[in-house]
Write a structure and sequence with these properties.
alpha+beta, seven-stranded mixed beta sheet, Rossmann fold, BirA Bifunctional Protein, domain 2, five-stranded mixed beta sheet, binds adenosine-5'-triphosphate, about 425 residues, 23 strands, single chain
Length: about 425
C-alpha cells in the first residue's frame, strides 16, 4: 500500500486533498494520470451497461435532493455507526471493530458506544436563520429511485429494465483512511434493475455473475476476485453478496449485489404520496417493481486495480494495467535528443498518433530510463525512432509486459497499435 500511495503521488495519479493546508482526512484529488485512468474506467463501465445491455438507460442525478428523500431511505434514522472514544488519546473507533475494552492505539479506557449520523449535511438559502438543512447524497442510487417514473414515462423501457448512474456520494466516515478505500467524498457506479417480484431469483443470479465477469475482464489477476455472502441482512433482503478483491491488504469490498425487493419504491411512494407502481402493458397487472442493485465504488476499484497491476521485477517497477484503462496508450521517443533529424521525425509520429491515442512524448535521459519511466505508469507501448528508421522507415515498438521489440513500418503504426490495444 505504501509503495502504491507514493507512486500515485510521485507520478501524478492521486494527490492528498488540500495538501498545502496540511490535508483533509478522507479526501483525495486525481492528478493528470489518475483522471485519465479513472475516465477510462468509467467509460468502460458506462459503455458496458448502456451499449452491451438492451434495456439499460443512464441518468446523472443531483447531489442534493429534497431532505425528505433521506427520511424515506431510512438514512436519517439508521445511517449511523456506534462509536467509542478513547478517554486518553481521544481517538475514535467503530464499536464493531473493537475486540476488547481498551484503545487499540494507546491502551487507554474507552467510552460507551455513541451514535453519530454519517450523512454529510449542508444548508440551502442565503438568509441566516432561514436556511434549510439538507444532505449531500449518502449513496448515489437514491436519485435513480426518484427518477424511475420519469424514465418510464419518457423512454420506451418496459419491465425488466435497468437505470444506471455514476456519481459522487458523501459520507462522514468515522474512520476515513487506507488511501482510497474509505473516503468521505467517493464515487459510485450503480445499476438498479427493476423487475417483476416473481423474477427476483433469476435476475439476482444473473447480475451477480454478470458483474463478476465484468470485473474479471479488467483485472490482471482475476483469480484474486471472489464473493462474500452476507449473513446479517437488511430486513427486506433475501440475500446479499459482495464482490471482493481478496488480495487486498486492507478492506476487500468493491461492489455489493443487493436484493432490495420493493423497499425503495414502496418507501418513496409512502413518503412522497406518489403512486410508484407499474402497470404491465400486456397483462394490466399492477405491482411495485422489485429491485436488484449492483452498487460499486469507482475509487476502490481504482485502488484495487493499482494493487493488482503493480509488479517489482529485477530492474524495473511495472504497472501491468489492462491496456484499456492505462492512462497513456503509447509513448514516443527519438533515440537521441541531440540529433535534430531524429527528434523531428519522432515528433511527427507523435503528432500523428496523438489525436487517436493518448500519447506521451519523452526525450530526456537515455532510452532505458524512458522505458522504465513508462513501465511504472503502465504505458503499454513505447515507440522509438532511431538511425535505422531514417533508412527503412520503420520504428521499434516495445511491449510493456514482455519487453519484446517489433520493427513496424511507420505507415502501419496506427493500425498496429489499434489492433494490439483492442479498439
Ligand atoms: P463499507 O461496508 O465498506 O462501509 P458499504 O457496504 O457501506 O461499504 P455500500 O453502501 O454498499 O457500501 O456502497 C457501495 C460501494 O461504494 C461499496 O461497495 C464501495 O465500493 C463503495 N464505498 C462505500 N463507502 C465508501 C467509502 N467510504 N470510500 C470509498 N468507497 C466506498
Amino acid at each position: 500500500m505504501e509503495k502504491i500511495t507514493s507512486l500515485c503521488k510521485r507520478r501524478g495519479f492521486i494527490f492528498p486533498g488540500s495538501e498545502i493546508y496540511g490535508g483533509l482526512a478522507g479526501f483525495y484529488d486525481y492528478g493528470p494520470l489518475g483522471v485519465e485512468m479513472k475516465n477510462n474506467l468509467k467509460s468502460l463501465w458506462w459503455k458496458w451497461m448502456t451499449k452491451e445491455h438492451e434495456n439499460i438507460v443512464g441518468i446523472d442525478g443531483a447531489i442534493i435532493t429534497a431532505p425528505k428523500v433521506w427520511e424515506a431511505s431510512g438514512h436519517v434514522k439508521s445511517f449511523v455507526d456506534p462509536l467509542v472514544e478513547c478517554k486518553k488519546c481521544h481517538h475514535r473507533f467503530k464499536a464493531d471493530d473493537i475486540a476488547g475494552d481498551k484503545c487499540p492505539d494507546c491502551g487507554g479506557p474507552l467510552t460507551e458506544p455513541r451514535f453519530f449520523n454519517t450523512l454529510v449535511s449542508t444548508e440551502l438559502g442565503i438568509i441566516e436563520g432561514e436556511k434549510t438543512k439538507t444532505y449531500l447524497r449518502g449513496e448515489a442510487c437514491q436519485t435513480i429511485y426518484l427518477n424511475y417514473k420519469n424514465v418510464l414515462d419518457s423512454t420506451r423501457v418496459k419491465i425488466p429494465f435497468g437505470i444506471c448512474q455514476i456519481g459522487k456520494a458523501f459520507r462522514n466516515e468515522v474512520t476515513p483512511g487506507n488511501f482510497l478505500f474509505r473516503l468521505r467524498e467517493l464515487e459510485q457506479w450503480d445499476l438498479q434493475w427493476f423487475c417483476h417480484p416473481s423474477e427476483m431469483e433469476k435476475w439476482f443470479k444473473f447480475w451477480k455473475e454478470e458483474r463478476m465477469n465484468w470485473y474479471k475482464s479488467l483485472f490482471t489477476h482475476p483469480e484474486n476476485l471472489g464473493f462474500y455472502q452476507h449473513v446479517k441482512l437488511a430486513h427486506y433482503a433475501k440475500k446479499a453478496f459482495d464482490i471482493y478483491y481478496e488480495a487486498s491488504p486492507i478492506g476487500k469490498e468493491m461492489e455489493g449485489i443487493h436484493w432490495r425487493g420493493d423497499w425503495d419504491l414502496s418507501r418513496h411512494s409512502e413518503f412522497s404520496g406518489q403512486d410508484l407502481s407499474y402497470t404491465d402493458p400486456e397483462t394490466n397487472e399492477k405491482f411495485i417493481p422489485n429491485i436488484v442493485e449492483a452498487s460499486g465504488g469507482v475509487d476502490r476499484t481504482f485502488l484495487f486495480l493499482m494493487l493488482d497491476a503493480y509488479v517489482e521485477e529485477e530492474e524495473r517497477v511495472v504497472l501491468k494495467l489492462n491496456r484499456k484503462i492505462a492512462p497513456y496508450k503509447v509513448a514516443v521517443f527519438p533515440l537521441l535528443a541531440n540529433k535534430p533529424e531524429l527528434v523531428e521525425a519522432a515528433r511527427k509520429i507523435y503528432d500523428d498518433l496523438t489525436p487517436r491515442f493518448m500519447a506521451a512524448w519523452d526525450d530526456r535521459g537515455n532510452i532505458g530510463k524512458r522505458y522504465y519511466s513508462q513501465d511504472e505508469i503502465g504505458t503499454p507501448y513505447c515507440v522509438t525512432f532511431d538511425f535505422d528508421s531514417l533508412e527503412d522507415k520503420k520504428v521499434t515498438v516495445r511491449d510493456r509486459d514482455t519487453m519484446k521489440q517489433d520493427r513496424v513500418a511507420i505507415g502501419e503504426l496506427a493500425s498496429y497499435l489499434e489492433e494490439k490495444l483492442g479498439k
